[in-house]
Amino acid sequence: MFDESSTWKKAKRTSPLLPMPPKTPQQWLQVVGHAGSFHVGENGMLLKRFCEGEQQCYQKLMEDILRPYVPAYHGVVQRDDQDYNMMDNLLTHFNTPAIMDCKMGSRTYLEAELLTAQERPQPRKDMYEKMVAVDPEAPTAEEHGQQAVLKTRYMQWRETLSSTTTLGFRVEGFRKANGECQTNFKRTKSREQVTGALQDFVESNAQIVRGYLRRLVQLRQVLEASDFFRTHEVVGSSLLFVHDGTGKTGVWMIDFGKTATLPARRTLDHRTPWVEGNREDGYLWGLDNLIHTLANLLPLNEGGSLITPPPLAAQQ
């Protein structure tokens, strides 16, 4: 499928590819902030820096009922001796799209990361600098002395600032069709603040809200029936929202680098509050709250007719 004279080496696994208008991943990168991790491939493909765990997840997802809700996966390619997972570029079939990244779940660190930090603590200067940039009083006296904090300490602290802990999801960033990009949501925590951010993203367009709600309610139903979802700890994963001026909308699950397979015969309900050891991730709790928050952007009767009532109480 690739020209051998190009810089692309032959794909390790190929499948039929679709024509693609010339686009770059810049819109996506402005929102998700993974500089150097993405490249545009040929024929409507997006290339993401290779992660074996993510590859395994996508291979399983291609056989699961969740397949329509994730980017189609097409194997591994190489560029300049670097492997990349190849998947559909979700922006291809939108005209000047607006995009938003919402990080899902009540935590963004794996239990295995906590264990590693406890067994082999490695304080990090970069995490300390990120912490003091937001709140100079946040580090402890010991952390100030070391000028370093553990990654898990930073991640747990950061989540107390955002709606991850209050709603089970947080807005990472969005880019409107006019190019306006907003990523400063580190302290967006209350339902009212999150509602304002979502309303800004959809620009009070009820048609866009309805499209997103229909897709999210369908996704919730599929998640509750999915074998993959039931048997995986889904941490650090996002929902990518895309819409354009025609009213077309789409939502997909992305980012599975931290998704971990559970031990045999172990399952999660994704709503039970997390305590260390139970591996619950709060994904469905967050999705319930996201659906409810979007529904509140519509008139009461209309919003309520599009969703089933989710459990809205904050996790204890």
Characterise the protein shown here:
This protein has 316 residues and is of the alpha+beta class. The chain contains 12 helices and 11 strands. It has helices at 26-32, 52-61, 111-119, 125-134, 141-146, 151-161, 163-167, 191-202, 206-225, 227-230, 283-295, 300-306; strands at residues 38-40, 45-49, 73-79, 82-88, 98-104, 169-175, 181-182, 232-233, 238-243, 249-254, 260-261. The strands form 3 sheets. It has a 5-stranded antiparallel β-sheet, sandwiched between helices. A 4-stranded antiparallel β-sheet has the order 1-2-4-3, covered by helices on one side. Strands 8-11 form a two-stranded antiparallel ribbon. Helix 9 (206-225) runs antiparallel to helix 11. The longest helix is centred in the C-terminal third of the chain and has 20 residues, at 206-225. It starts with 25 loop residues before the first helix and ends in a 10-residue tail after the last helix.
The general outline is globular
- The radius of gyration computed from the alpha-carbon positions, rounded to a whole number of angstroms, is 20 Å
Number of helices: 12
From N to C, what is the helix and strand string? HEEHEEEHHHHHEEHHHEEEEHH
Distance between the termini: 52 Å
